[in-house]
Amino acid sequence: MAIDRVPALKRCRALGIEPAVVGLSKESKRQPRRAGKKMSEYGIQLREKQKAKFIYGVLEKPFRAYYDKAKKMPGITGENLLGLLERRLDNVVYRLGLAATRRQSRQLVSHGHILVNGKRLDIPSALVRVGDVISIKESSRANEFFKGLAESFDSLSTPAWLTVDAQNLGGTVTRFPNRDEIDVPIEEQMIIELYSR
Hints:
- By secondary structure, this protein is of the alpha+beta class.
- The chain has helices at residues 8-15, 41-56, 60-72, 77-86, 89-95, 102-110, 144-152, 188-195, and strands spanning 114-116, 119-120, 133-136, 162-165, 170-173.
- The protein has a domain at 88-173: Structural Genomics Hypothetical 15.5 Kd Protein In mrcA-pckA Intergenic Region, Chain A.
- 41% of the residues lie in helices and 9% in strands.
- The model has no long low-confidence stretch (mean pLDDT 85).
């Protein structure tokens, strides 16, 4: 399995993303790069795609598959693409506040700590459906990480398409997200134009 080992802050700086977007509270001590040559239209489109792939932690082949799936769905392709990325299990775990970053939520899912509708699901890329209940495995709750989480669990930052069950450390997918509820700084139309070339 391919793994992206580029330091997160370095990638944020290169793509012009605030570290908070990927859940990092750190700030880079280095100065942002000075603007050099004007970027071509292709360069701008490519950068938007790289931003989306980095924020959601998706590599090229699965990202292309999401685009192909979004194109076949009714509605606007760009919005469909972001909707599919938001519905990934690792992203939903992050959005519910069960992890500080998407990388951390991916690890929690991979290590089998997360249940969907009461059944263990260890595939971070699995797409959730309306009505799915996400929770933490009973045996995992004794883990120090989850004990600390129970004390600081906050449902205020949870998007409206998810409902939080703070008592049981989990939540439910009540509907699919609208574009205005997806707060990632991505111009999805640029990605669609890139793939349409």
